[in-house]
Amino acid sequence: MTTDPVQALIDAGAIPTSPFAPNSRYYGVAFGLYQRDPTASGIAYVLRRFIPQQRDIAIALEHIVQSGERPDLLSAQAFADAELYWRIADANVVTDPFELTDTLGARVIIPVPQGL
């Protein structure tokens, strides 16, 4: 039995298991607990999120970057959700999403929307 009241609420289903929205790259990622002193309460942190291998990402289309485009605009157009830009970044293996649209004429892979 846990003595942590917050964990007890999570276990009982009173608190969602993920504090992140379903469209967040961290939704569903587990938490860890950093605890230097066993008598202290510790600090919760988000565990590492592994980026899928490019070969495992289904491609919907390839987009040519035009003037004025941004990662969030591409995501809004492709997925109807500007906050899913990270899926496009993952598919193109970039850590900085702005690398996607920095160069006019660059080819950007747009992945298949999740659930299709």
Q: How much is the average pLDDT?
A: 87
In DSSP terms, counting alpha (H) and pi (I) runs of 4 or more, how many helices? 3
Structural domain count: 2
Strand order of the largest sheet: 1-2
Question: What is the tally of beta strands?
Answer: 4
What separation lies between the terminal Cα atoms?
41 Å
Question: How would you sum up this structure, described in words?
Answer:
The protein is of the alpha+beta class and 116 residues long. It folds into 2 domains: 5-46, no CATH class; 54-111, Roll (Membrane-bound Lytic Murein Transglycosylase D, Chain A), CATH 3.10.350. Helix content is 20%, strand content 16%. It contains 3 helices and 4 strands, in the order αβββααβ. The protein has helices spanning 5-11, 71-79, 85-91; strands spanning 31-34, 43-46, 59-64, 107-111. It has a two-stranded antiparallel sheet with strand order 1-2. A two-stranded antiparallel ribbon has the order 3-4. α2 packs across α3. The longest helix is centred in the middle third of the chain and has 9 residues, at 71-79. The protein starts with a helix and ends in a 5-residue tail after the last strand.
